[in-house]
Sequence to fold (86 residues):
Amino acid sequence: MGKKDASTIKLPVDQYRKQIGKQDYKKTKPILRATKLKAEARKTAIGIKEVGLVLAAILALLLAFYAFFYLRLTTDVDADLDQDED
Fold:
């Protein structure tokens, strides 16, 4: 029974350490909250890479569209020129 009685009595050093730990937690809580908000904003924000990829995809689509019509129209014009020469 001596051990149970000894474990219930806390040493002043342990109480002091616990109090300091609580104070440190209170100090770091706003810092943790700010870090969490920054991480959340970073996850939800559209990054430069995503914007660049979208712009590159649009540019590639426009280039393919332009090339398709350019090649289609130039072959039609060449065919009309060849028929006029005969």
Remarks:
- The radius of gyration is 37 Å.
- The mean pLDDT is 78.
- Helices lie at 2-8, 12-44, 48-85.
- Residues 52 and 58 are 10 Å apart (CA to CA).
